[in-house]
Specification:
The protein has twelve helices and eight strands. The protein has 277 residues and is an alpha/beta fold. The N terminus is likely disordered.
Length: 277
């Protein structure tokens, strides 16, 4: 019950957003690690690409898990998102093509926040870098680090919407309070359009009462912002990155792939609803 009172009613302006779907920037954020941000960024991107859409995924996490999930070693990448953000290298020069296009990360990205901290306009570095490529894509998906630091703030400033993957456990839900507070500050000062567009339950186990109750608390507090798709636990999500591929390529007919196809349909249905609102 205490947790229910902690969760805020979110700002709802995004439901009325009539922005274009071309070049729509969606950020995947949660300051808690291990909630399937990277898994969702890649697999949703591939599911959208299956539908013929042009997708760019950007790895903004110094751990480079998204980059590794397409078979590239962040330790061996010479030019990456660090160079884009800090040295203003054109985004097009660090994009690699795998199952989808990826703005790759290297180990250098760990120093990006310190390097950016003394720069004027540091919160808009990513937004400015996207100008060059935004019209080339239907969707730009950004994987963020497990923090609300300067890299994640850059993502929020560039974003049209935020999807929050939330592990179906009580303690995971508490972080939504801090994330929504951060978004409120971003709206007031840097990007008035940024909003939570969806909350994605992940690591859901329908056999566990704990998982089901966590989803119910989300729905009580956030209503239709909670996406209908639930990403259930399966070992396929751990196996696919080892092979350097999405789960849609690793096991294309399996349940794990179908969950992200369902999520892609829900995201596209939401985009269509915004256009006609």
């Amino acid at each position: 019950m205490a947790l229910t009172r902690l969760l805020p009613r979110p700002h709802t302006r995004a439901r009325m957003d009539k922005g274009p779907t071309v070049g729509r920037v969606i950020v995947f954020a949660n300051q808690k690690g291990g909630v399937a941000k990277t898994t969702t960024t890649l697999n949703l991107g591939v599911a959208l690409a299956e539908k013929g859409l042009r997708v760019l995924a950007i790895d903004l996490d110094p751990q480079g898990n998204l980059t590794m999930s397409q078979g590239w070693n962040p330790d061996e990448i010479e030019r990456s998102m660090f160079d884009v953000l800090v040295h203003k290298l054109p985004m097009s020069e660090i994009i690699r093509t795998g199952e989808i296009d990826v703005g790759v990360a290297s180990i250098d990205l760990a120093g990006a926040e310190l390097a950016l901290s003394s720069m004027i306009g540091r919160e808009r570095a990513l937004e400015k870098s996207l100008v060059e490529v935004r019209e080339k894509y239907d969707y730009i998906l950004i994987d963020t680090p497990p923090s609300l630091g300067l890299l994640t703030i850059n993502a929020f400033v560039a974003a049209d919407g935020v999807i929050v993957p939330v592990q179906c456990e009580y303690l995971s839900l508490r972080g939504l309070v801090q994330l929504e507070n951060t978004l409120s500050m971003i709206r007031e000062n840097l990007n008035p359009r940024v909003e939570i567009q969806g909350i994605l339950p992940t690591m859901f186990d329908k056999r566990l009462l704990h998982s089901r109750e966590a989803v119910e608390i989300l729905k009580e507090n956030f209503g239709d912002l909670v996406l209908q798709t639930k990403i259930r636990k399966t070992v396929r999500y751990a196996e696919a990155p080892v092979k350097g591929m999405s789960v849609l390529r690793y096991d294309p007919t399996g349940d794990a792939a179908d969950m992200y196809r369902d999520l892609a349909k829900e995201v596209l249905d939401g985009a269509s609803a915004r256009q006609h609102a």
